[in-house]
Amino acid sequence: MARGRSEQHIRRLYRSGNDKILGGVCGGLGEYFGLDPVLIRLAWILFSLVYGSGVLAYIIAWIIIPRNPNHKWK
Amino acid sequence: MRRVFLLHYIVNITMVKKGRVKRRKRAVRVRRARARKAGHTGIDENFEHFIEELGVHHKHIAEKHHATRDWWYGTFGVVGPLLGASIGMICVAIVAFILSMVYAVTGTPFISLLSAFLNINLPVFLLVFLVLNYLKHIYLSHERLYYIVKPIKVAFGIAVAFWLLAWVMQFAGMQAGSIQLMSASLAIMGSLTNIFFGFLVLGYIVALVKRERDLYGKRAF
Hints:
In chain A, about 55% of the residues lie in helices and about 0% in strands. Chain A is built from 4 helices and no strands. Chain A has helices at about 1-10, 25-35, 35-50, 55-65. In chain A, helix 2 crosses helix 3 (about 35-50) and helix 3 (about 35-50) crosses helix 4. Chain B is mostly helical. Chain B has a domain at about 140-220. Chain B is elongated and about 95 Å long. Chains A and B meet through helix 4 of A and helix 2 of B.
C-alpha cells in the first residue's frame, strides 16, 4: 500500500504529445522542468552542433522516454 | 504400490510447479497492465512507439515530397529539370564560396582544394544534375519506362557520389600525407565504371522484384 503511494508521488518524465515536432522529447522536458520547450529546442540545436551529439542523444531519449499516456498520439 | 505412489508424487509436484509458473506469469501480466495503465511502459514498447512514430514521420515527409515534385513538374513541365539543375549548380557555387570563406579564416589546404574543385567542376555538376533530373522526368512522365530508367538514374547517382568521395579522399590524403588514402581514391576512380554497372545490375534485379510485386501483389511471394 505504502509502495503504491510512493509510486504515485514520483513525477515521471514523458514525451509530450501536445507539444511535439518530432518525438516530443523537448516538449516533454519542457513540461517536466516547467520551461518553454523553445528554449530546450534551441539548446538542443546548439548541442547538436557539437559533432552531432544532440541528434544521438535525442534518438536515445526518444526510445527511452515513454509517451505521455494522458496526451493524444496519432 | 510404491510405483503408483511415486507417480502420484511426480504428478503432484508437476501440477504444483505448473500452478506456480501460471501464478507468476499472471502476476507479471497484472504488473505490466498496471504499469501500462499508469503510463510506465517498458523499453520494448517504447521502441515499438519509436518505430511507429518514425513511420508516421516518414509517410508525412514522403507525401510532402511527392506533392512538391508533382507541383514542380506540373508547373514547369519540360523546363522543370533544367530549372532544378540550375538551382543545384547555384547551390554548389554557394557551398564553394562558403568553403573559400572558411579557408580564408582557417587556412586549411583541404578546404581550399575542395572549394577549388567545386568551382572548377561547376559545369560538370550542372551536367550531372541535368542528367539526373531529365531521367527522373522521363520515368515520371512515362510510367512504362519507370522500371527501365530508374535503375539507370540510381546507378548514375551512386557512381557520381563515389566520384565525389574519391576526390574528397584524394584531398584528405594530400592534406594528411597519407599514401593509403590517395591510393584508395585512385582505386575508386579506376573502378567507377564497374560501380556504375554493378549498381545498374542490382537496380534491375530490385526493379524486377518490385515490378512483380506491383503487378501480382504480395501473394506472389
